[in-house]
Structure formats: C-alpha cells, structure tokens
Design a protein that fits this description.
single chain, about 280 residues, alpha/beta, Rossmann fold, Pantoate--beta-alanine Ligase, Chain: A,domain 2, 2 domains, 6-stranded parallel beta sheet, 9 strands, about 40% helix, globular, binds pantoate
Length: about 280
C-alpha cells in the first residue's frame, strides 16, 4: 500500500493503473476507521483492480467547529488497518491540498437537503458535496462506496452525481453493527462506558419498531421509538422521521410509498449518533 498526500502523485499512480486496464474503486472516509469502513474497503478491493481510500477530515462539512476540532484522528492506526484490508493507495491530503482556495460552490439538492440532517446541520451536505465531488473528479473511480448508515448522505451523493453527470457507479453498503446492535461509527469512541452500554437501545428500539409498525400507524410508530428513548435521560432525540426512501419526505401512512425508511439522530450524552431502519422495500 502506498500513502499519498498530493493530487498530482495520486493521479500519476492511477494513470499507470488505468493504462494497464485496471478498474478503480474509491472509498471516501474521514479516518478513525472501524470495521464498518473496513467492510467497505474489503468489498472495494474485491470488486476493483485498484482500491483507493481517502482519509480526510473535511472542514467544510462541519457546522460545529468544536466537532471538527475533536473529531478523532488516528492516521497511523488507519494505515495499518487499510493495508491489511487490501487498500492499494491511501490518499491523505492536507486541507490546503483539497482547498487551495475557498470552495464557494453552492449545491442545490432541493428537498433532499432541507429535511433531517439538513435541518439540524445547515451547510453540512453542501460541504459533503464539495469534497466528494473533488474526490470523484480527482480519482475518477469506476465505483465509489458509501455506507447506508448515512442514509441521507447517500441520497445526496447520488443526486450530486446525477446533476454533475459524473461517470461513476455509487455502491451502497449495508450498515455494519456491533454484536449488541449499535451501528458502527467513529463517534462511538467518544461514548463513556455508561453511555456505550446504553447506546444499543437505539438500534434495539428501531428493530422492535418494525414489528410494532406491522400493526400500528406511522405516527404511533414514531411515538413508540421517541417514547422508548425518552424513558432514559441519557438520550435526547433530535429527530426520528419515517420517510420515503427515495425522496426523503415524511410519509403519513404505510401505503404512501413502496420504499419506507425510519431515520434517527439522537444524542447519547454529548455524542450525536445516527441510525436507520428499512420498514418497506420494493
Ligand atoms: O461519510 C463520511 O465519512 C464523509 O461525510 C465523507 C463521505 C468521507 C465526506 O467527507
């Protein structure tokens, strides 16, 4: 595995690989890698001639400067995990390499960007689109891999790729969970021991809500999840919405769409966690 810090060097290496007819896969990450990321990297390495992983804590997607400052950074550990997972090139640029001048682009993803994460993290998806578009146009991968835990991000990336007509296949990858159900996230490291013990309640309630949903309405299912978490003061639900999986707009009944997903953002102590569950799929 080669560690690369500049766009010029990465493009030089990749042009050699591409001239040999190798397909290129990209896994964009912000580092602090866990098994969820590693699952994506292994799949990318399996499905492509060359596997590129970017590790870059993107400042433009943080609307909270303290969150940016405290975001876990573990470059050496990340590199050793990536090497074992079959990554060929790890791209670890400095901020100035990706943003030699401020990126003033304003994307418009319509209703996709105004709900859920978009409502609570203004500007977040514009920053995600800025960096992901830069990475996709730099690497020009055949396939790029994104986790379904960030359900809304996946929808935004797909829409951006459509708008910019980028020739890449976006590959969605299922949520990877700890053995107690907690969705893997770099933020889990920030949970105290007591919070870590409680955090699986989120996934547990989502899973139970699927059974509940088979006999109850959408609004009763929302109440079921919110009430279940409200019973413990360690949790503060920011939102729990049941939405159409394509448009991300709230649904009022289970008949409103063939693809229905419940998305949650909840603070467990000071740590903001997200998760989701599919209620209906075609
Ligand atoms: O999901 C993430 O880790 C980030 O939002 C991404 C896609 C790497 C862009 O910085």
């Amino acid at each position: 595995m080669k560690r690369i810090e500049t766009i010029a060097e990465l493009q030089k290496e990749l042009s050699i690989c591409k001239s040999q007819g190798l397909s290129v896969g990209l896994v964009p990450t912000m580092g602090s890698l866990h098994n969820g990321h590693i699952t994506l990297v292994k799949r990318c390495a399996q499905e492509n001639g060359v596997c590129v992983v970017s590790v870059f804590v993107n400042p433009t997607q943080f609307n909270d400067q303290n969150d940016l400052k405290t975001y876990p950074r573990t470059p050496e550990e990340d590199c050793s995990k990536l090497e074992k997972a079959g990554c060929n090139f790890v791209f670890m640029p400095a901020v100035e390499e990706m943003y030699p001048e401020p990126d003033t682009r304003q994307f418009n993803f319509g209703n996709l960007q105004t709900v859920m994460e978009g409502r609570f993290r203004p500007g977040h998806f514009n920053g995600v689109a800025q960096i992901v578009s830069k990475l996709l146009t730099t690497v020009k991968p055949d396939k790029a891999y994104f986790g379904e835990k960030d359900f809304q991000q996946l929808a935004i990336v797909r829409e951006m790729v459509r708008q910019l007509r980028l020739p890449v296949t976006i590959v969605p990858c299922p949520i990877v969970r700890e053995s107690d159900g907690l969705a893997m996230s770099s933020r889990n490291k920030r949970l105290s021991a007591a919070e870590r013990e409680k955090a699986p309640l989120i996934a547990g309630l989502l899973s139970k809500s699927r059974t509940f949903a088979s006999v109850k309405s959408v609004s009763e299912t929302i109440e079921f999840v919110k009430k279940g978490l409200a019973e413990d003061p360690a949790f503060r639900v920011e939102y729990f919405e049941i939405v159409d999986g394509n448009t991300l707009q709230a649904v009022e009944s289970w008949n409103s769409s063939d693809y229905i997903v419940g998305c949650i953002a909840v603070f467990c102590g000071p740590v903001r966690l997200i998760d989701n569950i599919v209620y209906k799929t075609c």
